[in-house]
Design brief:
heterotrimer, A alpha/beta (252), B mainly alpha (315), C mainly alpha (285), B: mainly alpha, two-stranded antiparallel sheet, 14 helices, 2 strands, globular, C: 285 residues, mainly alpha
């Protein structure tokens, strides 16, 4: 499998607090990876560094062999990166369809067309509808996104994340705040998208059910560093990992 | 802001436009003058709201570009009495000014942006006020001709009368409104709104946020410049107060009055603005204070911390 | 050479007015996260009140200044308690609009109550006169203003670094939820800080009355300059505000000396240059 992402000794400080302390990680294409770890382990900060929401204080990040360490966010998206957010970050005043249209237009270079209506961009609209179909929100396409149920907003969040047709997509706690039913819907969707599209997902999760049902590889973080990584079965048995979780139930 | 107009509205709209064209036949000079002021403010406010309602950037300095358009047009007309050139020139100059100042302003957070716009607007005011040799200082520029519409060798239409100039203002305003209408429903309009709703998410959707903010700012400047350029032939003078922050307040007030999140809000608001100002001025010369009260009332009218789609909650 | 040094001193005293208004603005933003567009208007109200008490009612200068602080502080209290505090959760654009509405109201209110432009009242006798400095006559009053500005800087530093109250305010500024959780009465802190900031602005306006024009419109001029200083120094950064005030004040004074026509424009040029070279401000990390 080719290497999609390479993080080399990346680190980030907030004042005296070192949130990420020299993480080295390699993510190959096609392997659904989960990043787990206790609160404050630095998982979200790491994602922020990789996706460009934050710039690292030291270390480097390479995407498909190319250095992107200090590249602007929208350029990284153009290069095949994407993410979803833990705190819901949809375009609340826009319709569901329009939410997906935004990244589709951006990807197709149509975001700046000023003189005819959106609906005239038939290819883009069709593509957006296709995505809505995949995530199951097609029949709500004209609702304002802010009016969707919490679970549906999470699905929309996912849709916006995959709309730029990324090769590497980070999902930050995709099942956070969802009911069990909604959670399995989201997991199912991630599994489906992972299988059907050429997208490699990396999930940050607290919910162990979701992690063990989806992940082909698990990275455990603690105190800003990588504690262990390996296939799920191995991680489940890893003593250091069990200690970190202090007896938390790891098995499903 | 999505979907097509139902046909009843379209009919009303057509009737309104026809009425506007027929206005000079029915009313006297003052209402025509007032109508032009309203149209000018409407164009000014539409540009402002592209920036505020659609892109989420609050500018307190649009009068700066209004003034660049006005002074630009005035200087051109004083040299070459050709209305096309004057207005076009004013618009272009305002657009360039907006582009340059925008490059300095849009890379900042929204709060800094608002502060900067106030500062830059007043910077233009201080230039207009101090640069006597060029702008006439606080006396301003006078004797600006209501020049004819001219394409040398092809046609020359005189617009010297108030009624004729009204048609110039009306046609240009309607074209500007139409262009804005198409813009906000276009992919560009969607991109701007996405930036407004969540600039982080927009960036992560692959949108170069800074670039599009600059686009919005420049277009707003162009509209302000057009509105400003329509003024000198009407009044025959331009003076520095048109660059003052109190002039920047006018599109803000008009838009708040008419509705920030409706396309026609700024237009309706421009109309309301003049009606209200007309009423207030009959009782007192201090009309700004009453508009201040209206602003405060409108803002306070939003229930605090409401989870509605009209107010964003801070996380 | 002497002229340059002398002009520098003039600039220093000009800087102190900028410092007083920027300090209040910075503190309010640092704690409440609101940019008070009406802060210049508070400066103006402070000036008008001091003028009334000192210039018109003939009260002693010190008394007039204190009364002006109290009056403006009260106004600030009403603004914060009555209006701002009710919209803390809303989109920051509406907070800006609200404070902008206050400018509209205060600017005209001042005209209604006090009329148009004012004469400048006489300088209090004990601060009158001038000292020979660098071969020129340096007004004692300017030295007084510099002294007040420096005193405020020291007091603020001591207040925020050394006192218990200062610590509470800093905690609230850093994390208001946390502060509330450990028992701090956050709304009360907000009100107190806003009033404190208002009084700083009023101080700047009040001590300016004997030497500057008291007129509507000075509020707008001051807030613009305060914004420029904040952009240069970084919002919420007191040290940055102080140093930027010095820079802007002194450079403006030199600008007036060497390029008199463009004095107003000069300060914008400084800001534009800083924005180009270091957009995040000179003092933000």
């Amino acid at each position: 499998m080719s290497e999609l992402l390479r993080i080399e000794g990346a680190g980030k400080r907030f004042g005296d607090f070192v949130a990420v302390n020299g993480v080295t990680l390699s993510i190959p294409a096609g392997r659904l990876t989960a990043i787990i770890g206790p609160n404050g382990a630095g998982k979200t900060t790491l994602i922020n560094l990789v996706t460009g929401a934050l710039l690292p204080d030291f270390g480097a990040i390479h995407l498909k062999g190319e250095a992107v360490t200090r590249l602007a966010v929208h350029h990284r998206i153009r290069k095949g990166l994407s993410r979803s957010f833990q705190i819901m970050n949809i375009f609340a005043r826009l319709s569901v369809l329009q939410n997906i249209l935004v990244p589709v237009f951006a990807r197709r270079g149509r975001a700046g067309i000023p003189f005819h209506g959106m609906e005239r961009e038939t290819e883009a609209v069709a593509e957006a509808r296709q995505i809505l179909q995949e995530i199951g929100l097609r029949d709500q396409e004209n609702l304002p996104a802010g009016a969707l149920s919490h679970g549906d907003q999470r699905l929309l969040e996912l849709g916006i994340a995959v709309a730029p047709v990324p090769e590497l997509c980070f999902l930050d706690e995709p099942s956070s705040g969802l009911t069990p039913v909604e959670r399995s819907r989201v997991s199912g969707l991630i599994r489906k998208l992972s299988a059907e599209r050429r997208t490699t997902f990396v999930i940050v999760e607290h919910d162990m059910d979701v992690v063990f049902s989806l992940a082909e590889w698990i990275v455990v973080m603690n105190r800003g560093q990588v504690l262990a990584e390996g296939p799920p079965a191995e991680i489940r048995e890893n003593r250091a990992v069990r200690e970190v979780y202090l007896g938390e139930e790891l098995s499903t | 802001m999505t979907g097509r107009l139902p046909s009843r509205s379209t009919i009303l709209l057509v009737l309104l436009v026809l009425a506007l064209f027929g206005l000079p036949w029915v009313v006297g000079r003052y209402p025509i003058y007032l109508a032009m002021q309203i149209l000018i403010l409407a164009v000014f406010s539409l540009g402002f709201n592209l920036l505020f309602g659609y892109t989420g950037l609050l500018s307190f300095g649009q009068a700066g570009f209004f003034a660049v358009g006005a002074y630009g047009c005035a200087k051109i007309l004083l040299a070459v009495p050709n209305l096309f050139l004057g207005i076009a020139g004013g618009v272009v100059l305002a657009g360039v000014a907006a582009l340059l100042l925008g490059m300095l302003s849009v890379r900042h957070t929204r709060i800094y942006f608002s502060m900067l716009t106030l500062a830059f607007g007043m910077m233009i005011f201080s230039i207009a006020w101090k640069w006597r040799d060029f702008t006439g200082g606080d006396d301003g520029l006078v004797g600006i001709p209501r020049a004819p519409l001219e394409i040398p060798g092809l046609l020359s239409i005189s617009v010297a009368t108030m009624e004729r100039y009204y048609y110039v203002v009306l046609v240009l305003s309607l074209l500007a409104i139409l262009a804005m209408y198409r813009l906000v429903r276009s992919p560009l309009g969607l991109t701007l709104q996405a930036i407004r709703d969540s600039e982080t998410r927009a960036a992560f959707a692959g949108v170069p946020v800074r670039k599009y903010r600059l686009v919005a700012f420049t277009i707003a400047g162009i509209y302000a410049g057009l509105a400003g350029a329509l003024l000198p032939p009407l009044e025959n003078t331009v003076t520095p107060p048109i660059a003052h922050w109190s002039t920047s307040a006018e599109p803000v007030l008009a838009t708040l009055l008419g509705g920030v999140h409706a396309f026609a809000g700024p237009i309706v608001g421009a109309f309301l603005f003049f009606i209200i100002k007309d009423i207030i001025v009959r009782f007192t010369e201090y009309w700004l204070i009453w508009f201040g009260v209206i602003v405060v009332a409108l803002v306070m009218g939003f229930p605090g911390g409401v989870m509605s789609i009209f107010a964003k909650r801070r996380t | 050479m002497d002229t340059i040094a002398f002009q520098g001193l003039i600039g220093l005293s000009m800087a102190m007015y900028l410092w007083l208004i920027s300090a209040g603005l910075t503190i309010i933003f640092g704690v409440l996260r609101i940019v008070n567009f009406a802060h210049g208007s508070l400066f103006m109200v402070g000036a008008y009140l001091a003028y009334t008490f000192y210039g018109q009612l003939g009260l002693p200068f010190g008394v007039a200044v204190v009364l002006s602080l109290l009056g403006t502080g009260l106004l600030g209290f009403v603004m914060e308690r009555g209006f701002l505090s009710r919209i803390y959760g809303i989109d920051e654009a509406y907070q800006l609009l609200l404070t902008f509405g206050f400018i509209l109201i205060l600017d005209d209110a001042v005209k209604i109550i006090w009329g148009g432009i004012f004469k400048i009242p006489p300088i209090p006798a004990f601060l009158d006169g001038s000292w020979p400095v660098f071969g020129r006559s340096f007004p004692v009053y300017n030295a007084f203003v510099i002294a007040v500005g420096l005193a405020v800087a020291v007091v603020l530093w001591a207040l925020f670094e050394k006192t218990w109250w200062g610590r509470i305010v800093r905690a609230t500024a850093t994390d208001r939820e946390m502060a509330g959780a450990i028992g701090v009465n956050v709304p009360r802190v907000f009100s107190a800080v806003f009033v404190f900031g208002a009084m700083l602005a009023a101080l700047g306006g009040a001590i300016g009355t004997p030497v500057r024009v008291v007129a509507p419109g000075i509020g707008a001029t001051m807030i613009i300059q305060a914004f420029i200083i904040t952009v240069i120094g970084g919002l919420g950064n007191l040290k940055g505000a102080f140093v930027s005030s010095l820079i802007v004040g002194v450079l403006s004074a030199y600008g007036t000396l060497f390029f008199p026509v463009f004095e107003l424009f000069f300060i914008f040029v400084i800001m534009a240059v800083v924005l180009l070279i270091r957009p995040q401000g000179l003092f933000t990390r």
